[in-house]
Design brief:
The two termini are about 20 Å apart. This protein has about 290 residues and is mainly α. It is elongated, with a radius of gyration of 20 Å. The N terminus is likely disordered. The longest helix has about 30 residues. The chain is about 70% helix and about 0% strand.
């Protein structure tokens, strides 16, 4: 049953238009069921960071620890080094890739027009989308951390201040990536081209933003390009949570620069919000 038909039947039963929040919460359940019924989406957005952490952790296990101090202490395994990048990439995949492709498909195939003739409002629609990103991101994060600890024996931070830092980074990252996904959904011209348009953007950003490659290994001009996009800053923020403090010296400015991380993420949040408001159209049927 589609969200539109379900909401229409509910309105008929209640004898009134369903509340915006109630419809939005109900839409979250529909979005989650549709999400986990598509194996390709689950694989490329939900399980992909976990699989990549496993591949990188095993492939580079023989190279030993990285980032040791001159006295030989403070090194970590390659799996531990890749963990913050996988956390950041997970938000990119669930927020940007999943939403951009999904909304573009629904618009191209006429679902938004059908929803426009139902009691659902645009606010309820986006509550459903945001709820999908939130729930899947939290579930993906939990699975990724459990996998890191159980399979690779990675030690998670024991400092409450780092987990508070993680909380605002994760929350700001979810909102930013969700809005970017909504804004990017206007780029594909059809449902068939949605994946072809979105996937290369997401893939290139991961390669140049320090997710798959150590950011300091990239040429300076490529680092400058990556610094224009939010994934580089989100990855830097996540490294400040999960990596030892002396790893900050390997960053571009020799420090975590969390104020720059927050400023860039907020800047992209505002830009994506403006683009979303200008490009998204809720088509009402008479």
């Amino acid at each position: 049953m589609t969200i539109a038909s379900h909401r229409s039947s509910l309105a008929a039963t209640d004898g009134r238009t369903p509340g915006v929040l109630r419809v939005g919460v109900d839409a979250v359940g529909h979005e989650l069921r549709a999400y986990f019924r598509t194996p390709d989406t689950v694989f490329f957005t939900f399980l992909f960071p976990v699989l990549l952490l496993g591949i990188f952790g095993v492939a580079f296990e023989s190279s030993g620890d990285v980032g040791a101090r001159p006295d030989g202490t403070g090194g970590i395994s390659m799996a531990a080094y890749y963990l913050p990048g996988m956390v950041a990439a997970g938000l990119l995949l669930t927020g940007v890739q999943n939403l951009a492709v999904d909304i573009a498909r629904e618009k191209s195939e006429g679902w938004l027009r059908r929803l426009g003739g139902s009691p659902m409002s645009p606010v309820s629609y986006f509550i459903g989308k945001a709820g999908l990103v939130l729930v899947t991101s939290l579930a993906q994060l939990a699975l990724l951390l459990v996998f890191a600890v159980v399979v690779f024996g990675i030690d998670l931070p024991d400092d409450p201040e780092r987990w508070m830092r993680f909380a605002w980074l994760f929350s700001l990252g979810i909102v930013t990536m969700t809005l970017i996904g909504i804004a990017l959904s206007a780029a594909p011209r059809s449902s068939r081209s949605a994946t072809a348009v979105v996937l290369p953007i997401v893939l290139v950003l991961q390669f140049i933003s320090g997710v798959y490659l150590q950011f300091s290994m990239l040429p300076e001009w490529l680092q400058n390009i990556a610094s224009l996009f939010p994934l580089k800053w989100l990855g830097q923020g996540m490294r400040s949570v999960f990596l030892p403090e002396h790893f900050a010296g390997a960053e571009t400015g020799g420090d975590w620069d969390l104020w720059l991380v927050a400023a860039n993420l907020i800047g992209w949040l505002l830009v994506a919000l403006v683009i979303s408001l200008l490009t998204f159209r809720w088509v009402r049927r008479s």
